[in-house]
Fold:
Amino acid sequence: MPEATYNVVVIGAGTAGLVTAAGTAGLGGRVALVEAKKMGGDCLNFGCVPSKALISSAKLLDRIRRGREVGLSEMEPSFRFEEVFRSMRERRARIEPNDSKERFEGLGVDVFLGRAKFLSPHEVEIDDGTRLRARNFVIATGTRALVPPVPGLDRVPYYTNETFFDELDRKPESILVLGGGPIGCELAQVAGRLGIEVKLVELLPRLLPRDDVEAGEAVRKRLAREGIDVATGTKAVGFEHASGRTTVTVETDGAKRNLTTEAVLVAAGRTPNVESLGLEAAGVKFDRRGVKVDDTLTTSQAHILACGDIAGPYAFTHAADYQARIVVRNILLPWFKARASYRWMPWVTYTDPEVAHFGPTEEEARAKNVAHDVFRYDWEELDRAVTDSETEGFIKVLTARGKDRILGATVVGVHAGEVMHEVLVAAKHGIGLSKLSGTVHAYPTYSSSVQRVADSFQKTRLTPRVAGLFRWLYRRRRS
Ligand SMILES: Cc1cc2nc3c(=O)[nH]c(=O)nc-3n(C[C@H](O)[C@H](O)[C@H](O)COP(=O)(O)OP(=O)(O)OC[C@H]3O[C@@H](n4cnc5c(N)ncnc54)[C@H](O)[C@@H]3O)c2cc1C
Structure:
């Protein structure tokens, strides 16, 4: 039975909703959490977790195929497609209990399974007729795959992230991936490594458009080398399906051609889950990007907050977690509201090479006239990368021009996500490259590339005057 009035009713049990519910209950609040589909939301069920599990299998396949680079005999690993997917689901199931109804009930949260809808600014109704009232509401309904309005797409079978991990029950001979963002690139590479013939179609001129240009290019080169047919600057303009095959008409620079494929994966962006939520009845403003919030994550109604993908501006699990913590605090202490800041928001794309980033890219810094310097260190020079035969990568750090202040960084290569965090922590806490250069890094780690790039900054401090002074000192000591 629901409480007469909750402190908080949370709609959506993805990362944003779960963290809000657990945080509020942990501080002693009475919370109801409503979930329409699966506890855990996208990240656990159709996103980060299953994709990273498949990526780990696919990475090993690639590593075995490249065994010759480290002295092994050439070999083609043997595997069963269905078994790789089964193992992915098994690994996902190991994480599932963390987000389960039982666990959250154990934390003191009242969990309701069903679709919630606002009846008024102070009441929601679940589709079984249960009504919940609360002092505050949190909208955490996330996003889903955007299916672009391409003629014929609605009449052909296709996968999205919601079906790919559970309904692809046998290996298709070929797949066309629509979209060259992080999800499209990660899953295209997985599919290719699992022996599927892959075509990747991206409308924009490059892959991973939010990342550094060089990073997107490194991923494009690698995908192409692994046999994926990458078509950037290419628009899908029509879909047709006959005899188990889909024909996709694509257009590049005005020229049309047909691509045929057995399966299609739509990874062309995300659209917010704002429909049938009764946002109009609640008086909550929204647009095609999601629910509108200010930097305290408050919607147009002071007692209704929103967090996670539905609130934007970033669609990452760690962004949802960050915002949910702010929401918990702002509901408890509305007189001293915390404000969300995305200045140091990192992200990682788990392709090979991995791409990790925070802060402005070089292109953004140029476009916004931010005076900056760029320091770059190529992993061709990095001993550990050479010993592992993983030299495809680099680290690039942007600093304020002429100053030892880090603005952002991009790391490309194996374990790039782990390496990037050292620079992120330094940047956020005002530690400059000279201090990173002066910190002993264990040899031979990938992280020592941070020290190397910092060394290149230090060298710029050796001005001709200082160099002249040093030469004079050496001369004196010799005489
Ligand atoms: C393939 C893929 C890979 C990804 N990989 C990564 C990654 O590696 N790292 C990363 O940081 N991010 C990744 N993401 C993004 C990440 O999954 C999302 O940013 C994160 O899940 C957002 O959490 P959320 O709580 O805002 O929304 P969601 O996880 O989408 O949860 C929202 C929940 O609300 C429920 N809901 C919707 N409407 C209602 C309603 N009316 N009533 C009740 N419940 C409702 C939904 O069913 C859903 O469970 C990936 C996403 C995808 C698709």
Remarks:
- Residues 11-17, 34-38, 41-43, 46-48, 51, 115-116, 140-143, 161, 183, 273, 277, 308-310, 315-318, 320, 350 surround flavin-adenine dinucleotide (CB under 6 Å).
- The chain has a mean pLDDT of 97.
- The radius of gyration is 25 Å.
- Residues 48-65 form the longest helix (18 residues).
